[in-house]
Structure formats: C-alpha cells, structure tokens
Amino acid sequence: MLLRKENILIVDDDVDILELLQRHLQSWNYHTYKAVSVKEAVTILRDTKIDLLITDLKMPEIDGAELIKFVSEHYPKLPKLVVTGYPSVQDSLSFIKSRVVDYLTKPFTREELQNAVNKSLAISKENNQKTIKLSEEKNKPYGEIIGNSEKIQDVIQIIERIKDNKATVFINGESGTGKELVARAIHYQGKFARAPFIVVNCGAIPENLLEAELFGYVKGAFTGADTNRDGFFQAANGGTIFLDEIGNAPLAVQLRLLRVLQEKEVIKVGAQKPEKIDIRIIAATNSDLRDMIQKQTFREDLFYRLTVVEIHVAPLRERKEDIPVLVDKFLFKYGVEYKDRFIKITPEALAILNRYNWPGNIRELENVVQRAVIMCDKIIDVAHLPEHLKYTLEFSDTSLEPLKVIEKKYIEKVLRATGNNKTKAAEILQIDRKTIRQKLSE
User: Fold this and answer.
1) What secondary structure letter does DSSP report for 2?
2) What's the mean pLDDT in 296-311?
3) Does the predicted TM-score (pTM) go above 0.70?
C-alpha cells in the first residue's frame, strides 16, 4: 500500500475515543494529530497543514460547533467530519451550512469511519481541483484578510490577478489597516508560496545600517565587517521581499533599489560584482510618496518603478461593515487564548464599536477587543470598553436637526452607553437626575 500523505486532526475530550480513531486512521496510513480541546486544535491548525478535521460535538468550555464555525471562516477549504453521540436535526442543518462533509453517530463501525473519511477527502480533493470563481468566494477569508465590504473585495480581486506573477506591487494605506496582511496574501495564496517571504521594516533599521542589511556586504567593507554576509534581498531570492515603510529609506538606498528593479541584480556593500536575483518586491507605506517627491525626499523614478500594481487599503472608518466580522475573529482568538472559551459581545457594545471612527484602524480594534476579553467573564458589555469609546457621538454634515432633537438623541445615547444608569449619565452630561427625567418626559 502506498503511504498516504494526508494529515488528519482529531478533536475529542474523550481520550479513549481519540486513541480508537487514531489507531484506525494510522492503520490506513494517515498522519494523525490529536487534541482534547478546541484551544489545542486551533494551535495545531495554525502550525500544521491539516487535510481533514474530525471533531466531537459536545466538549467542555468551547464546543465542537464553535470549532466548526472557526474553521469555516479561517480554513474554508478544510473538510470537516463530525463524530458525536448527540445527533439532532438542528445540528445537521447547521453543519451542512458550515460545509461539514459527513456526520457520524457514536457508536460507529470501522467501515463507517473509513467510508466517511474517504468521502470527506475525495470531496476536498475534487473541490481543490476545480477553478473556484472569485464571486463564489465572496465574504470568505482570503489568507488572513477578512471582510464583507466592497473595498476589501476589490483588494482581493487585485490579489487574485497578481498572486501568480512577480510584478512589483505598491500598497498604501494608513497605519494599522493591514498592509502586511495584503502582502502575505499575495505571496502565500499564489504559486510561489513555498519560496521565501522576507519582511523588512525600513523605518525600524537605522539609516546607516539599512543599506548593508538589505544588500549584504563583503569583508572589510566597513568597520565591523569581519566576513562576507548576504542581505535580505539574497535571503528572499526566488520569493518575495516586503519593504514596509519604504518612505523612510534614505536616498542612497532608494538609488540601489532602483537598480534592483531595473537590472534584477544587487551589489553588496563594498563589492564590485553584481549578483543576479529572481525576486518579487512588494513595498508599502502610510506616507504620501507623491508629496515626498515634491519635497525631493523620494525619487520619482523609483516611485514609478514601484507602482506597477498599486493597492489601496481603505481605513476601517470607510468600511465599517467589516467591523462585526473582525470583532468575531478577535473574540475567538483571544477567548481561546485567555479564557479557554468562546467569548460573545452584547449588541449594545458592538453598536459602540460600529459607531467609533477607529483612527488606529484594525490594530486599534484588535487591542480594544483583546482588552475587553481580559476584563470580561463570558460576555463583553459596554462596561468592558474603554471610556473614550462609550461617549463618542458622531454627527454627519447632513444631519442638521433642531437643537432639542439633537439634545434628546444625545441623552438617549449616553443612557444606553451607561446601561440606563441615570446617575452616571447625569455626571457625564453635567446635569442632575431630575433634569434628565424632565427632558426625557418632554
């Protein structure tokens, strides 16, 4: 029998069932991984390529249904096989929607298990061989990029078109919008995914060291150069180099980058002979390079070389429909990490997150959710959010209304934000409880 290469993850809090499933699967020459909790399973999924998930339904803390939801969102092509002693019609419908391939009820025979595993893997193989249209993939994660907004779907469409070639890409967007996630998606979703992916933050390396770090150096090139050393470009040869905060690169480095783009070769610091490289360059910045060109701090010829394909990542305030799905992702991530359970959020708290403008973008949202998960027990409520979020009120230029109407709306918002605590609301509004009651009655 040929050795199978499929990796199968088994999740069950019953150790005896785990051992039984593992014995069967190994006898059929599958590689197996075991987890007694959802937390362990998520760790394995993030570190290992898994071809099939087999999970129990009823487990302590976070149950199998939440694991299926997580896998459906983050690993949509991974087939899922449910093994449970508590079947129900409602569960079956839910799992079908989550693309569960099959459903086994305990006790089951060895033959039933083998048939279910073969079916799950066969369907998975068939799906992977098909060309899946992007429209069919809408609202599903693309690598680590998730979002339902048109702006994010536009970004995904561009990635889909360029992922399998080595055209130079320039990504612009505010800090915290996820520019590195876009770069990673371009690399890891394409046919060069097994090649190196090197990240260089041009703003984090001192100017006097950046040139040597990028291009390497030869022995004796400068004080401390005791040996020949390759740079980041040589390390990324055959793959992708991501130059973050490219606007911070000094002009001398910009000139060398221009040569790399034009000649497809690098020269180490102190060397005379160039070295050919085969590489894709992705650059990103939150600076306005066009403004820097006017100020002569960024080379215009380099700018046009970098922007063969340009991707704009919109700030979170321009795609607020993505906030709920991002919140859900962070709730699962930090709920599993800190609480060993799936944390939920109240509609009132989510409404506040939706209303806020997020100057720090996704990074700020993640930090807020992370803190809230730590502060809560099982459910995030308004009280677990930072103070500056609770009392943020937005007025659009088009919402011109009488002062009494605006005053009424604001009082109601403050009451909602304080959980209808009139004493707390009065402190924020700097009026007494009697005045609040009077204005509400009016």
Assistant:
1) P
2) 96
3) no
